[in-house]
Amino acid sequence: MTAEEMITVATENGITTLTLNQPENRNSLSMSMLRALSERLETLEDDPDTRVVVLAASGRVFCAGHDLKEIREQFGDQDQQKDLFDQCSKVMQQVVNLPKPVIARVAGVATAAGCQLVASCDLAVAADTARFATPGVNIGLFCSTPMVALSRNVHRKHAMEMLLTGEMISALRAEQIGLVNKVVDEQVLDDMVYNMAGVIAGKSTHTLKIGKEAFYRQLELGLADAYDYTSQVMTDNLAAGDAQEGICAFLDKRTPEWKDS
């Protein structure tokens, strides 16, 4: 399959949907799939028509993680294996660093690096039939890279339970531990996802970019440094035209007219 076939793209009303489109391979993150996803994310960075990104998947499996058949072919070639994991890490960081909010639409199973992909997104909405796991321990390959995103989204004891047992958890359990934001009936999954995306798409893209970057950066800082950093971020944000327009619109009781700057 070509990169365009592996990851389909559709944009409407400022919302771009990227769909993992290899259901016959359980949407596994092979090297070719990872490269295709990386290319798609790169094109969206400066795309003026994209205000919010929805990450979806075709078929009954959202993403089964790495392609184990591909990994088996790489036995004995550590350079190739390291390239694969480095590429996966690059994609996860691209999701986090993309200056547009990313919402995972999860209608099926998300395991290992697939669960990592969900955890890397800014928001996640799941169907009540969705399930999640980091089952690497069951095959002797601990989910060490998925652990990075997982442990930054859920409490460490919940993360360790998933990592150590490798057991599948329900969508409701994923919501309870903070892996996903909302769980809904599969029949209304799209309504929930695109309503949420539409609300976010109505905000200033400049403000969203500032806020997303600041959110992830302050998490890595100590308390005092985080406040110093975010105080400067707010000061700089206040100098932007959209912030001044938004404040004036609120005080004047009117709808703001964003310039995205």
Automatic annotation (TrEMBL):
Pfam families, A to Z: ECH_1 (PF00378)
Gene Ontology terms describing biological process: fatty acid metabolic process
Keywords: Fatty acid metabolism, Isomerase, Lipid metabolism, Transit peptide
CDD domains tied to this protein: crotonase-like
GO molecular function, one term: hydro-lyase activity
Cited InterPro entries: ClpP/crotonase-like_dom_sf, Enoyl-CoA_hydra/iso, Enoyl-CoA_hydra_C, Mitochondrial_ECH-domain
The protein's role, per its UniProt record: May play a role in fatty acid biosynthesis and insulin sensitivity.
Family, similarity comment: Belongs to the enoyl-CoA hydratase/isomerase family.
Name this protein carries in UniProt: Enoyl-CoA hydratase domain-containing protein 3, mitochondrial
